[in-house]
Amino acid sequence: MSARLTRLDNGLRVVSHTMDSVETISVGMFVDAGTRNEPAEINGVAHLLEHMAFKGTKRRSALDIAAEIEAVGGHLNAYTTRERTAYYAKVLKEDLPLAVDILADILQHSTFDTEELARERSVVLQEIGQAHDTPDDVVFDHFQSIAYPDQPLGRPVLGDAERVRKMSREAIVGYMRDAYGSGGMVLSAAGMIEHEHLVALARSLFLDLPDHGPLRNETAAYGGGAHLQQRDLEQVHLTVGFPGVGLHDPDLYAAAVFSTLFGGGMSSRLFQEIRERRGLVYSIYSYGSHYSDCGLFGIYAGTGEHELGELLPVLCEEIRRLPDSLEESEIERARNQLKAATLMSLESTGARAEQIGEQVLIYGRPIPVSEIVRRIEAVDSTAVTRVARRIFSGRPALAAIGPLRRMIAYDDFTAQVTT
To answer: Would the CA dihedral through 271, 276, 278, 282 be positive or negative?
Structure first.
């Protein structure tokens, strides 16, 4: 059965996918706002708001919110990204009304109590500190900041500690009022669900959302360059990247096949050449970050101090030779990996609810799985070669943390990549 979509009078969109083989429902509110929509002076407000939404409403305390959902065996959570925020629950099918009621309550009637804010600010500051103590996490923030310097898309999702420490209740309330408009939100569910039931719940419960659309994104400008941080660690954490493709780019599916082929699994070129054949890394993979109007293609490697000097020339060689050495068998293998991942996601109510919710935010409609598979299958060697050359023609961004005494200079690295 395909997904169904309804737009309410207030602009809120409701989408669902019925899965007859399960007894549960995953339901979430997906908001077209994230770190990219924050003013610089309150970087981290989207993430702090996500935390505070669970800390009490006009009719529920923080304990009530947790106890009510867990009393029926369900769970409730949320996450923030650079362009979106999501609040979601998973419950047995008969408990859908409770889950939607809690989501409606926390997104419309949170009180943002000042004592709760003080406690949760402390929790978020600990989370930021933990991230800084985790180099294989924080290296991606450094990479993002060089790729998009001095602009919202380059700032950390968790926020800047000093700004979070000073963030006021009024800043959080103001951001929520401006960013959480009904026209920029999607209620999405998947599982043993009747679409009309979900629509009726949404129509009766989401009455107090601000009646406006999403905030506009500031145009992103890719930069590139290097951020190198010498630290006394056992490993070097390295991220290399280039300008990628956006969510509306015609090359989106070709870029996905390319990334899978290059570093998306144990059979990928990077894994086979750099880990299996040479033993230079413990972990290496490539990935794509796709945004509404731009994107990044990145490669992560975790390596030892002594292996770093050999790793970088080998990595540069793999980047240089890929566009002219593609084989049909590896393109077919990458296509099959993507198709399998797409179809396997249908077996998870949470993954399916997230998938169709984000599709409605991004494209205005849930995309049939058959259409996704068709687009993957249409990617051929010409398309992969084209997107590889396009990506690798950009200026590199390079971030590294660890013992960097064998690290080559950025200009030397750039010369090796493009030679």
So the answer is: positive
Measured between its terminal Cα atoms, the distance across the chain in Å is 51
Which of 318, 256, 316, 315 has the alpha carbon at shortest distance from 288? 256
Is 227 in contact with 398 (CB distance < 8 Å)? yes
Q: Please choose, from the candidates 232, 237, 228, the residue with its C-alpha nearest in 3D space to the C-alpha of residue 284.
A: 237
H helix or E strand, kind and range, residue 190: strand 185-191
Residue 155's contacts (CB-CB under 8 Å, 6 or more residues apart) are 35, 38, 40, 43, 144, 145
Distance (Å, rounded) from C-alpha 390 to C-alpha 352?
A: 32
Question: 């398309």: which residue's tokens?
Answer: 383
Catalytic residue among 23, 38, 41, 50: 50
Query: What pLDDT digit, counting tens, does each position of 72-97 carry?
Result: 999 999 999 999 999 999 999 999 99
Pairing mode, strands 281-290 and 295-304? antiparallel
12, 17, 229 from 28: Cα distances, Å: 13, 13, 39
Active site residue 50: yes
Beta strands in 19-93 (DSSP E): 24-31, 75-80, 85-92
Note the pLDDT of residue 346.
86
Q: Which residues pair with 189 in a beta bridge?
A: 16, 27
pTM for the model: 0.95
Contact status, residue 233 vs residue 44, Cβ threshold 8 Å: no
